[in-house]
Every structure is written in C-alpha cells, then in structure tokens.
C-alpha cells in the first residue's frame, strides 16, 4: 500500500514579453495606469509572442518543477488550461512527449481559473489509488489570445504564464508528510455558466472561416457578478476545506487565492477575518493568469520567503462554469531551481 500524494516539486514560467498599463494606454485603449491599478491592482502582465502557444509555457514550467523535485520521470501529467493549443487534440500528451514522458497518462482539465485545483485533486486521487507513482500537474494559459484587442477591461486584467507541481506517493500507507492535501472542497453551478464565457468555437456556436459575429470568439466576463460570487464562494469553500483539515481559521498561516483581482483577494481575506498580509498576492506583476495563477503565486511566495515550510496553507479559486474550490495543506520544504 502507498501513502497519500504529497507535493515535492514546484516551478513557474512567464513569457519574457511584458505589457505595462502605460503600454495599453499608448496602444489606443481608453485607459490609464491609475485607472487599472485602482480597479485591479495590476501594473503589468506577461504575454506570449506570435508563434508561441500554451504548450510552450507548460513545458518550461514542467521542466522547472521536475528539476525542483529531483526527478525526470512521471507516469501522470494533467494540464489545466482554458487555452489549449488546439480544440483537438488535447495539449497534455504533446507536453508530456516534449518533456520526455511519452506513453504516460496525460490529459487536459478545463475548469477555467479553478482548473489547477481540479487537476491537483484529480492527480492526488490517482496517485493515492495506485494508478500513478508520480504526477506532474501544470496550469498554463495564453489568455491574451482570447481577448478582444479593443476590450480595455479584460486586456488590463489577463496575462499569460504557467506553473507546475510534482506530486509523489508517500512510501507507506498511513504516512502523512507535509505537502499532502488535507482538506478538499470542490463545487460547481452550471446555472452561472454565462458569467464567464467564450461563446464561439464549440459545438453550440461553431466557428467558421467568416463567423457572423467575430466577437463571439473573444472572452467575456460579467465583472460585477463575478466579483460578488467569487468572494462569497471562495471564502465559504475555504471554511469547509479548513474544517476538513481539522484546523481553525485563526491557525491558517497563508491563503493563496487565484489572482483574479486585488480587490477580490482582499475581500476574501476580510470575509474570512484573516489579516490581508496572510493572503499571497503577485497580481501586480503578472495579472490574472487563470489556471496558472495559483502555482505561479506559490513559486513567487516560496522564492521570496512569504511561504515557508510548515505554513498551514489554503489554496482557493473561482472560475467559469461556474467552478470553485479550496484545499488545505501544510506547506512542504521544496527546493526551487
């Protein structure tokens, strides 16, 4: 028998090109650095160059996570993304092959900004069930490719990037090491499906060479409603995950939320009655990277010492679907590269 899966490696990658708030204003959008900072907390974001794709980001983050874990061998790869390289086939098998991991279990998970949590829990369950010894879970997005060039709101919010973790089985059943998922809470509500959408491109609204409305292929979000739902549902999910871990909220050292908007991050902390300083944020420099945002934030916080071994940590997200969730774990001792 094997023990529960634990996180043993971590890595993140951002495309080199940055777009500042001033760049957006200079490009002709009716916006300003002050307007964007006040509403989102974002100063800049990274975006892929033409010719680059989500798989390229995923491979770089995956390589760093594998080096961090001290291994080059996995038998499961799950990629959380809203921006796959193609509608068909899935992107994960290509990423696995480029990482030298052919003929392993590899598939995509689509839960928008909650995708990394869904993928992490799925990988942990498969490792715990003995279907894999070691898993690579990647959140990767090229969200800039979904945005209307004239959309000043969403272009200000979203960026591109990738983050990854390695999960490994504990050597013995009943062995619980730091990095194991202790409290898990996931949920969805399809009645909220219209809050976050890309209407075109699927079987419901098919794309053609000349779609009747090209805007159907761009990302849309009902910002005010998303704000309210995200704050409420993420905070409630955090409470449930913390309770399942057997903790009290005042024992939580760090909350690592999906980097949606600095006001959402602050509001979740306030709703949980947790000091805002415990909520990890890197949104100022990277923007909202959707499914990639939590692992990127984890890597940044580990690198600068905000997240340390032994911290009681809660991860939480809200995304399209609508989907949301939270999970609690004691943060492990990880060597970044």
Describe the structure.
The protein is built from ten helices and 13 strands. The chain is α/β, with parallel strands linked by helices. It has two domains: 5-169, Thiolase/Chalcone synthase (Peroxisomal Thiolase, Chain A, domain 1), CATH 3.40.47; 181-330, Thiolase/Chalcone synthase (Peroxisomal Thiolase, Chain A, domain 1, 3-Layer(aba) Sandwich). The chain has a five-stranded mixed sheet. A four-stranded mixed sheet has the order 8-13-12-11, with helices on both faces. A two-stranded antiparallel sheet has the order 2-3. α3 crosses α4 (92-98) and α7 (223-244) crosses α8.
Descriptive tags:
31% helix, 23% strand, 337 residues, 4-stranded mixed beta sheet, Peroxisomal Thiolase, Chain A, domain 1, 13 strands, alpha/beta
- Determine the strand fraction and express it as a percent band: 15-25%
Largest sheet: 5 strands, mixed
Number of strands: 13
Q: What general form does the structure show?
A: globular
Are there runs of 5+ residues with pLDDT below 50, and where?
none
Order of helices and strands: EEHHEHEHEHEHEEEEHEHHHEE
Quick one: CATH class of the largest domain?
Alpha Beta
Give the N-terminus to C-terminus distance in angstroms: 32 Å
